[in-house]
Request: fold
Amino acid sequence: MSGIVEIAERAGVSAATVSRALRGLHHVNERTRKKIVAAAQELDYPIRPDLLPKGESSRTNTIGVIAPFLSRWYFSQSVAGVEQALREAGMDLLLYNFAQIDARQRVFQQKKLIGKVDGLIVMSLRPTDKEFQQILGLGIPVSLLGGVDDRCSCVAIDDIKGAETATQYLVDMGHRKIGLMMGQRELAFNFEVALQRKKGFLNTLKRNGIEFNPVYELTADFDNHTSELAMDEFLRRKDLPTAIFCESDEMAFGAIKSIRKKGLRVPEDISIVGFDDHEFSATLGLTTVAQTPRFLGQLAASQILAAIEKPESALGKISVPTSLVIRESVKNLKKK
Reply:
């Protein structure tokens, strides 16, 4: 983010004048102040809403949503929940979607958002300090969906605890050779979910005195295609685990397809546990940790709407519990 000196150079004034203008002091004539504010906007410098040109700080009746994907189940469900809550409140949704690092940088630029939305929901992305400065500088309510940060409202599940629940179920069913299908870290998004769920997985093994064998870990994207390919390669090994915890249901779908192609059976040969409770999970008999992204989206939208009406409510934090849904994809090794 550019600083006072850069703004001063662009506006053709001194740094001291820029400082006074952006603090709202009266010792700056209106023409100069407008020039400074325009320069600050061009350089993505946070500006107090009361200093913006007339009309830019007025209500738009629109809430912005920054989401990295739309094709993946979690994000499509979350956006649907936000849209439903906003529609019921008579508000519109403006979606910002990206899939590359440079696109992310453009989306978080203040001039892309200023005057266009009354609030902002950021899905599953932890903004960098620079990005937080940019969006908080807008002077509008911000909600982080799928993460926790003290600087804004948050709606999230406990991914660590959810993974612990899934892994403990496998242990309780007698499994000791347990694999992990982990989501890859995508640099454009820096998701924390994959590492949090791995942490819960490892916590549970350690608590039960089980040493994790690193050769039982395989990685893929959070989708069924790359997971199927990863499992195809994994199944070529002679030493296989009796069960695998997949960090999402879509990953579990790919794993199950690969296992069946190999002529193996779920759960007789390999047990599978997922995470999400995707609508297709029941069809496949998948045991999984259930979360409700549509409800999370509704809660995030409600936070924003409440903060618009009552700014003092802008820092609410909501933790939504998960639950284990037991189906047929896990074999009980304790049964004789």
The chain has three domains: 4-51, 62-157+294-320, 159-290. The domain at 62-157+294-320 is CATH 3.40.50.2300 (Rossmann fold). The chain has a mean pLDDT of 87. The two ends are 65 Å apart (CA to CA).
